[in-house]
Amino acid sequence: MLLFVVKRTLRFIPILFAIAILGFLLTAYMPGDPVKKNLIARYGADYKNSVLDSKQLQSNIYKELGLDKPLFYFSINSYNACDTLFKIQDYDQRKAMERLCYMYGCWENIQTYFNTINTYIANNSTEKKALINLRKEYENKRILLLLSRISSRNNRQGINLEKLYANIVSSKSLTGNYIPTLNLNGYENQFNLWLFGNGQQRKGIIRGDFGYSLRTGEPIGQFIWKKLGYSLELILIAVSLAFLFAIPTGMRLTRIKSKYSQNVLNILIYLMYSIPGYLVATLLIFFFANTQTLYWFPESGLYPIGYHPSEHSYWANLRTGMPYMILPILTYAISAFAFISKLTKNITTDELNFDYYKTALAKGLSAKQATRKHVLKNILIPLVTLFTQILPVAVGGTLIVELIFQYPGIGQVTYDAALNANYPVIIAVFTISGLMTVAAYLLADIVYALINPKLRH
Amino acid sequence: MKKGIKWHLRILLILLLVSFFAPIITNNKPIYFKLNDIHHFPAFKDLINPNHTIIIDGRVLNSSSDWRNMKYQSVLWAPLRNGAMARDPHNQDFQSPLKRSVYNDGKIKEITSQHILGTDRQGHDVFAQLLSGIKYSLMIGFSSIILAAALGILLGAVSGFYQNVYKIGKGALIAICISLLPAWFYGFSIRSYAIIDGFQENAINGTLQILFSLLIFVGIIKIFTWLGKRIDKAFELGFINFPIDNFITGITEIFSSVPSIIIVVTVAAITGGKSTLILIILLGLSSWPVFARITRGEVLRLKGMPYIESATALGIKKSKIITHHILINAMPTLTVAIAFGFGSVLLAESALSFLNIGVPDHTITLGALLRSGREHIQAWWLIVFPGAMIFLLIYLFNQIGDRISERSNPV
Prior knowledge:
The complex is a heterodimer.
Chain A: H1 2-28, H2 34-43, H3 54-64, E1 74-78, H4 91-104, H5 107-122, H6 128-136, H7 140-153, H8 155-170, E2 180-184, H9 190-196, H10 220-253, H11 259-274, H12 277-288, H13 314-351, H14 355-362, H15 367-388, H16 390-396, H17 399-405, H18 410-419, H19 423-451
Antiparallel strand pairs in A: 1-2
Chain B: H1 6-20, H2 22-25, E1 32-35, E2 38-40, H3 42-48, E3 54-56, E4 59-61, E5 74-76, E6 99-104, E7 107-112, H4 126-162, E8 166-169, H5 170-189, H6 192-201, H7 203-235, E9 239-242, H8 244-257, H9 260-271, H10 276-303, H11 306-314, H12 318-355, H13 366-375, H14 381-408
Antiparallel strand pairs in B: 1-2, 1-5, 3-4, 6-7, 8-9
């Protein structure tokens, strides 16, 4: 059995690795400057005016995020592209240099041009603002416009830069763009840091470190597990309830003789199955959380205003939160109930054709006893697999229900992050959902093997 | 007793026709009018492009213009005179479809509403919006299901037919492995700016650029494979086994491991913009694993049949066996999967537009209608009618799927 578990676990490692690479690629290619966003999140939007040295802070965060390292274990670049581009800390300058390199080739000229701009800025040139703008530009027209503006005011610097820029344009050679080169970067790279950490500030996602939220600046690992717990609680209660009622209902449906009541019940279950979750939620709010109809339950949130869940015990929290949870649970349980009872009915009908069922009937058991005693054991396997699917559903499936009821679970976190372009949080959710699915697959495999010893070999 | 799907298909066809010809059924523009001795057919033009404009006497007329009070030489109106995009200034702020009270000369007067399903806050007609919503939903569902089914059936058939005994020449395998690097380089690495610029222009341009990149990618791999086969022939290298089944199953598992809603939210956050095309691609890409899994199972089942054996003995090409002998016989099961897939894509689309994620603003969808109803919960007509319509669509597709599967697997 242990060998079986180990074998299965090993099988999922490539998938986990692929999910990790996907998550990392998303992190690496997110638009915008991560350093600036992190600075704003941690020190406020006016970090430039604070007492702290903004240059120093910038380079600290740059190092902390690992941006001073190459991206991956190896990289394929064109011959023209510079392979040490990541050493330039300013985001806009880096992008402009990359683009210019792609447009004109000839890295040395571009480097001299940008170095000259940077020296002028550092020496407090009279045209500092225009120079900073120039550093971001790669379009020919706009660069020429800015250069002519600078040279009209500060003659010497402007003419010098114009000369350097003309040098770049005139030495344009694009053949190097089409020659691939392979660089090996070793294990000191961003991906390695992201996955395994460096043992100091960064712990790597393998130890649950997803970086910092771009909105509040707090570590994502601190709140995301708690939110996931809320979602899991909701799903677990809802699905358990659904299973509890759906399995007997499904089995009962196969024993109904009357065609009429069979049809009515089938249609009823079909209606429950086809109705979208958000529609159920809207209707429930309309009927049971509306001051004009029935105001039995609060319509949103998880705790009353002013209640701090950290000050009370788990059970006290659950008791206080229960009225808030009933409508979300109902919403989720209705569709789950319909789905499970339909499935139970179908697989039970298939089982009834087998000989063991006829034997049980011949032995003198009633249909009810026979299904409970013999059929139930045989239909358990697909149902158990279904139950393990709770884990992945906890991340994605509750999003709609959570949003409608303002339930503070992980779906709410995802939605907020998507609205505010809070990339680290989105990627954390992405990675966690992948992880949960793999865990569910593994769990299903193990439970399978426990129920059916044949599968162990 | 076998249950037919005739009525379900009929209802679907009616919905499709009605939603497609909605601009002729209900429109604030005339179907036909004659002005300055020129004939115009604005409602028919709406069928193709609802945002089109007509210039008359230097005035630009679009869907929100005042068509009613113009002076025509001759005119033919649509049966219902409310457009999906036009606002009715006299019926703003959630007018009920039943009756409403108007103050006229100091007296309260009950008048019957001109809008058979009421209006929303801005005075849009709910009936006209409902019809465009159905059209949008069906279009999204249809396109993304085609994409998902094509991808899933192709991969599933390959993995089921060859299983883990796909023989490939050593030279060809090495050539493919080597080709991945230049293929990535020429396809995506040096074209990255072209793709980014394309997406900044608009989504269609960006997608075309990505398709072009994919073409280069596949082309380079093809060239290398061809070279590899030549090398195999020249040096008579042996064959090795490539576990193609495990490989494709692995990819399927990776794709199905992240919920589609999370993928859509993530991509919507990256691209920033909202686009119908991107939505279709995302929904298609996130629902293909189901098709791959089902096709694989069907192909595995049918592969063992004697008639396939005889087809192989006759020397029919493998690709032809897959398409002409296996997939044709797997069609009933695949139709069931497509029907259920359609239902789930519709559900996903309406849920996304309900939450206002990924669906472009100002697009009229059933989910968006329902959302505006939730903002003003007393307007029951904004919840009941779109809700019932979404429900009906999903119900129809689920029923069709269920009944076909009952038919093809009689107990």
